[in-house]
Amino acid sequence: MAENASATPSASGDAPPALTEMTSKDYYFDSYAHFGIHEEMLKDEVRTVTYRNSIYHNKHLFKDKIVMDVGSGTGILSMFAARAGAKKVFA
User: Fold this and answer.
1) 41-87: per-residue pLDDT in tens?
2) Of 5, 51, 59, 89, which is the most buried if we count CB atoms within 10 A?
3) Residue 61 confidence (pLDDT)
4) Looking at the 3D structure of the chain, how many domains does it have?
5) Is the whole-model pTM more than 0.85?
6) For residue 89, what is the enclosing H or E element?
7) Which CATH number characterizes residue 43's domain?
8) CB-CB contact of 78 with 67 (8 Å)
9) Contacts by 15-21 with C-beta closer than 8 Å and gap 24+?
10) Is residue 12 in some structural domain?
11) Looking at residue 68, what DSSP letter applies?
12) What is the spatial distance between Cα 56 and Cα 52, in angstroms, rounded to a whole number?
């Protein structure tokens, strides 16, 4: 395995750090580059249903609003916001 095979490029466009130079921050953000973590979160019914219910029970906060889902991952929260009545959703 190449030394920096699982590292992702930094926001500045520099080459990814070597695995031996990665910080906890690098490991944290690199973990989201793998689809498995997103599948695991979507299958976490308690988590997903809680997010959905929180948004759907507060539709008045989303109705006709513009929503930006930063770090949207799978986009599930963006879909909940749209279904709750958001005028536009950026994900």
Assistant:
1) 778 889 899 999 999 999 999 999 999 999 888 889 999 999 999 99
2) 89
3) 98
4) 1
5) no
6) strand 88-90
7) 3.40.50.150
8) yes
9) none
10) no
11) E
12) 6
